[in-house]
Design brief:
CATH class: Alpha Beta
Largest sheet: 5 strands, antiparallel
Strand order of the largest sheet: 1-3-4-5-2
Strand content: 35-45%
Number of helices: 2
Number of strands: 5
Number of domains: 1
Shape: globular
Order of helices and strands: EHHEEEE
Distance between the termini: 26 Å
Helix content: 10-25%
Amino acid sequence: MGKVYEDDYRIPGFAGDRYGRAGLANMMNVMLEISERQLETLHAGMDAINEFQAGWVITQYHMDIQRMPRIEEPLRVGTEATTYNKFFTYRDYWIDDAQGQRLVTVNSNWIIMDL
């Protein structure tokens, strides 16, 4: 269904914990930022959805974390909208390290709401 979108990313130092790892909330924010970038390239970003006075709501996440990314570590972050039905849209996210090892995989369910 969707087009794969990936981009290089480094999590800034202020987004890490005292051990130099990205916190869970900040790691999720990075993945959401990547999907926003993808939607902007498709002219389907926040401005487009605001025209309809609608908004996306996350209803479920499933996370598989092999290792939390470290701050300032070179990463490759990706996303793909995988499928949809009349109720939900499904989107996958991932974070790979510089060697191509998958650190994090997230499957998500979304609905659109009339604001």
